[in-house]
Design brief:
Blueprint (H helix, E strand, L loop, with lengths): L3 E5 L3 H13 L3 E5 L2 H11 L3 E5 L7 H9 L2 H4 L3 E5 L6 H7 L4 E4 L4 H14 L5
Parallel strand pairs: 1-2, 1-3, 3-4, 4-5
Helix pairs in contact: 2-3
Amino acid sequence: MGNRILLVEDNEMNRDMLSRRLTRKGFEVTTAEDGATGVQLARDERPDLILMDMSLPVMDGWEASRTLKGEADTAVIPIIALTAHAMTGDREKALEAGCDDFDTKPVEMPRLLEKIHAYLDGAGASA
């Protein structure tokens, strides 16, 4: 059984592409289309890692990340923020919201996989 990743992304094309690519790499991927659903799925499923788009409907990624990091059960799940806005300050803003790391979109798969593996392997991920 592979590591479980929760992908929170409102853009259907991005969501499908990323989830297919991650599945091919051996991950079990669950997806959510908005921050509120993402928070609920994280609580219910306790994924090993969360990829969180920051520009989301209903509840944005900043708020969803703060919510998850504020709850004991989900605070330990690493969150990698994904944002198309590689603006100065976004990285800091993501880290302040509780995200563990930050990556820009369009996603560069090798770089993103490196970050994912750093958290999963570093956390002594159980297979």
